[in-house]
Design a protein that fits this description.
heterodimer, A: 420 residues, ABC transporter involved in vitamin B12 uptake, BtuC, 2 domains, globular, B: 353 residues, mainly alpha, two-stranded antiparallel ribbon, 14 helices, 4 strands, membrane (chain B), transmembrane (chain B), transmembrane transporter activity (chain B), ABC_transp_permease (chain B)
Chain lengths: 420, 353
């Protein structure tokens, strides 16, 4: 469909046509070379992508229905194509270096195997990244998740360590409830700063990112609290129905989130707030409440991840638990094709992105590369994926293939356009 | 004519906003920068100055031997590297960007210096310029990617952060001591100001950076461009200002300042280590914010950043004087200060818009 045949008479950049997104007959809105003067593109990539952005709506509609011979182009242009390729390549590398990598065995009624391990150790990251996805979809960002992970783990371990009987399920449940409750409060605080005071999200959450580490250390009194509680151990290290419990939790959270955002209107509302907060407010959407909810949800996810991490090692370390997980989570979201600008999101992409990161880490260990170089590979993967997804990069390097922005909208394009 | 606003996230610094229309009314960014005029522009900086003074007075009343000039000078000595890094960060934040790679570049600089000087026996006069060059080159590369490929500064510098940290670990995972005479001589030099007071050469270098940065920001074309791009990138471009050159320049400056900070840190620590300066990017950003620079860009002063660094340093000094407070209280206090200052900024800007 990027073939030169399907050029519409009007371009998607035409502000007079906000309804083009719904028009399936529009195929390619912006056909690089001829319409946008090359000089403009060179000196002014920001404006160029701006145009592409507005053009994204019709393109995405078209992407859903690939033409006759354009199937391949549509696949390559799909937002999950490049992350998928990277994941496949990583898995392939593993298979080459470790025969039997893909095998999954049943031992003692539990599933074992490298793939299961990737999912299990990646579970906290997926959780945090899912929460982060929704925050980023509203055009925000949450830097405080790492601190929330530490606080949640610290509080629950502190409570459990104070129990007379650490095997008491009721006590553990209270600990979990307390930790998640506190996470929720922290999330509300973030959301309140962002939506109530109108503070820039990156700064509003920076406060909790810095102070939260201190709080976590305050809770643990600077020590590492170790506990010995088998009910608590279940959350991060146990098995249930042959599967690691963590995977089940992630699947449940994912299912609920997917249902709420994709089957109900919530996702659309979130995307419209991210697309243009003012316009969505004028359209009658209560953006303030939505934003607060999203931050609270993100912190709740981080809280659950914190329980998993601390339960997996049966201890709480206020200093190092969840360190840099916010960066990994943002990375996962970006790799998954969700634009940091907001206005659209892809849960599937985020899960894919988180799996890419976790697989990368696992690969480095299994292939025998010194683990110190993990960061180098991470940098490489981030750069490659981000460049491949950058419309400006595609424009310049692939010339004709770069028409479709990597972060094209997912199911619907809610980008609200209003004459200013 | 195409005055619609398609996208404008609050973090939309690299401007993928729609067409050529005025930028995001949702964020209020241009208006916010524009309204910071007149005397009220100085309120955040003055508030930081007042806070610094208040902290010093309270400290002086609470603790003996606190109210001496050397305490202030020690804050400078212990934070000279942070000061340099934060000034580089100020440039980036003034354009509305962010640089997360600074801490890693600092660590990389110490690591390269240590491995070349101690391991290879290179003379420091070769190593230091080389390190500065590497830092600037890293910044240049990140700036170019940010501008030409239109990727968020947050993500690009995050990749740069991973890259620099990763390079540290590939050089070596252990701390490498520096025993070179030049380094130890600089580390031990005390420049006496009076009988009781002294500073280190690093402080002089940091102050020189402050002076140069102030000059560049306020008296050169580059400085005006930095403020213009931060105020509104679209407008700056329409005015014919060299947006590309300016944006790449600020990241190059930040990379250079980080490398210089790394050199100062290697004077201070006399070692190179991949775990040096972990989280320094947060300290630098906090210093810039406490110094009254708007993270949306376009408004702020180098002097504010200097005061911000001093506030952070003084918090640590007070906590060490207090003795009973544990180190994590530093983080909590910094978080609280961030909150107060951001709220203050918000109130000032909201009142006028």
């Amino acid at each position: 469909m990027t073939a030169p045949t399907g050029r519409p008479p009007m371009t998607g950049a035409d502000p007079a046509e906000p309804g083009t997104g719904a028009d399936p007959s529009v195929t390619v809105a912006r056909s690089g070379s001829s319409e946008a003067a090359p000089e403009t593109a060179a000196t002014d990539p920001a404006a160029a992508t701006g145009t592409t952005d507005t053009a994204a709506a019709p393109t995405a509609t078209a992407a859903a229905r690939p033409g006759r011979k354009a199937g391949l182009t549509a696949v390559i242009g799909h937002r999950l194509f490049w992350p998928g390729v990277v994941l496949a390549l990583l898995l392939l590398a593993n298979v080459l270096f470790t025969p039997g990598f893909l095998s999954i065995q049943m031992k003692d009624g539990h599933l074992y195997g490298s793939l299961v391990d990737i999912a299990r150790f990646g579970a906290p990251l997926i959780l945090v990244a899912v929460g982060m996805t929704l925050v980023i979809a509203t055009g925000g960002i949450d830097l405080s998740v790492g601190s929330v992970v530490a606080i949640s783990g610290a509080l629950s371990c502190l409570w459990i360590s104070g129990l007379g009987d650490q095997q008491d399920v009721g006590g553990v449940l209270v600990a979990v409830g307390l930790a998640l409750g506190l996470s929720l409060v922290l999330g509300l605080w973030n959301g309140f700063l962002v939506a109530g005071f109108g503070i820039q999200p990156i700064i509003a959450t920076l406060i909790l990112m810095v102070a939260g580490r201190g709080l976590a250390q305050l809770i643990t009194d600077g020590q590492i609290i170790t506990i010995n509680s088998s009910p608590y151990k279940l959350i991060g290290g146990g098995y249930w129905l042959t599967l690691p419990f963590g995977i089940i939790v992630v699947a449940a959270v994912l299912a609920i989130t997917a249902f709420l955002t994709r089957r109900l209107a919530l996702g659309l509302l979130i995307e419209s707030v991210g697309g243009n907060a003012t316009a969505s407010r004028l359209a009658g959407i209560r953006s303030r409440g939505l934003i607060i909810t999203v931050y609270a949800f993100c912190a709740l996810c981080a809280g659950i991840a914190g329980l998993m991490i601390s339960s997996n090692v049966s201890s709480a370390d206020g200093n190092n638990a969840g360190l840099w997980i916010e960066l990994d989570a943002i990375l996962a979201v970006v790799i998954g094709g969700t634009s940091l600008v907001g206005g659209r999101f892809s849960l599937g992409g985020t899960v894919l992105g988180a799996l890419v990161i976790q697989t990368l880490t696992t690969t480095i260990y299994s292939v025998g590369i010194p683990p110190e170089t993990t960061l180098l590979f991470k940098a490489l993967v981030v750069t490659v994926v981000c460049l491949l997804q950058s419309p400006a990069f595609r424009e310049k390097v692939f010339h004709r293939r770069g028409r479709r922005p990597g972060a094209s909208p997912t199911s619907a394009d809610p980008k609200v356009k209003v004459p200013a | 004519m195409s005055s619609d606003v398609a996208t404008s996230g609050p973090s939309g610094s690299s401007g993928s906003s729609g067409s050529s229309g005025p930028k995001g009314s949702a964020t209020g960014r241009p208006s916010r920068a524009a309204v910071l005029r007149g005397r009220e522009r100085y309120i955040p900086v003055m508030a930081t100055g007042a806070l610094l003074l208040a902290m010093f007075v309270v400290g002086g009343m609470r603790y003996e031997a606190f109210a001496s000039g050397q305490i202030v000078l020690n804050v400078f000595i212990d934070n000279a590297f942070l000061l340099v890094v934060a000034i580089g960060m100020t440039f980036v934040i003034l354009t509305g960007g962010i640089d997360l790679s600074v801490g890693s570049v600092v660590a990389l600089s110490t690591m390269i210096s240590a491995s070349l000087v101690t391991g290879q026996g290179w003379p420091p006069l070769v190593v230091i310029p080389l390190v500065l060059l590497i830092g600037a080159a890293l910044g240049f590369a990140m700036g170019s990617i940010i501008h030409y490929f239109d990727i968020q500064p947050f993500i690009v510098t995050l990749a740069g952060m991973f890259l620099a940290r990763g390079l540290c670990y590939t050089i070596g995972t252990d701390s490498i001591p520096i025993t070179d005479e030049t380094y130890t001589a600089i580390a031990q030099t005390r420049i006496d100001l009076s009988a009781e007071m002294f500073i280190s050469p690093s402080v002089l270098i940091a102050l020189a950076v402050v002076v140069v940065a102030t000059y560049v920001l306020h008296y050169t074309r580059l400085g005006r461009n930095v403020y213009a791009v931060g105020g509104n990138e679209q407008s700056a471009m329409l005015m014919g200002l060299p947006v590309a050159r300016t944006k790449i320049a600020v990241y190059t400056i930040s990379g250079f300042c980080s490398a210089l900070g790394g050199v100062l840190l290697s004077f201070y620590m006399l070692s190179g280590y991949g775990l040096h300066a972990v989280g320094m990017e947060l300290d630098a950003i906090a210093a810039v914010v406490i110094g009254g620079t708007l993270l949306t860009g376009g408004s702020g002063y180098v002097l504010g950043t200097v005061l911000g660094v001093l506030v952070l340093g003084l918090i640590q000094t007070i906590i060490s004087f207090e003795g009973t407070l544990s180190s994590w209280w530093t983080k909590i206090f910094i978080g609280m200060l961030l909150f107060v200052f951001i709220l203050l900024q918000r109130l000032i800007t909201a009142r006028r818009s």
